[in-house]
Specification:
By secondary structure, the protein is of the alpha/beta class. It has one domain: Dihydrofolate Reductase, subunit A. The strands form two sheets. The protein has an eight-stranded mixed sheet, with helices on both faces.
Length: 177
């Protein structure tokens, strides 16, 4: 994999103050705590900058449960060993992440949105995340899906920005050196 062909890989995720990205049952209903009319916490701008999403099977199944497919204009790749039939043009991948990123780079992908706890952990463990935006919500869930389970190593982050919002949400922007 060369630096010139590998797309930039970004994480943009919300977590509870105690580090969970979903409830134990996978629910993300608690995200509604900070919903404010006209406030998207920078997500629209971020989403406009990406051309490809890479997510795990659980995140994919959550997205399928939304009223409509939330990624109609984006290339979507689901990491899974049991690929279902594609419903919205999604692609499925079961091989090594560097191979996937080499292929995406060769196909001119420029900016990848990495989503889902297990997938984020895999990308971090492999040293493939370039930047991470973490929105911390003012709630303690007590249990659930951790932000980055079982990475297996320390991942140093360099703070490049931070913002606090009236809703109590605090957003941290990191570069992964």
């Amino acid at each position: 994999m060369t630096a010139m062909t590998r797309p930039r890989c970004s994480v943009y995720i919300a977590a509870s103050l105690d580090g969970f990205i979903a409830r134990k049952d996978g629910s993300i209903d608690w995200l509604a705590l900070v919903e404010r009319e006209g406030e998207d916490y920078g997500f629209k701008s971020f989403f406009g900058s990406i051309d490809t999403l890479v997510m795990g099977r659980k995140t994919y199944e959550t997205a399928l449960g939304f009223g409509s497919w939330p990624y109609p204009e984006k290339r979507c790749i689901v990491l899974t060993h049991r690929a279902p039939e594609s419903r919205h043009g999604e692609e499925f991948h079961a091989g090594p992440l560097p191979d996937l990123l080499d292929r995406l780079g060769a196909e001119r992908a420029r900016h990848v949105y990495v989503d889902g706890g297990a997938v984020i952990a895999q990308f971090l463990a492999a040293g493939l995340v370039d930047d991470l935006t973490l929105s911390i919500l003012p709630v303690l869930l007590g249990e659930g899906t951790p932000l980055a389970p079982r990475i297996g190593r320390d991942v140093q982050l360099e703070l490049v920005g931070h913002r606090a919002f009236e809703s109590g949400l605090v957003q941290l922007e990191y570069r992964v050196p």
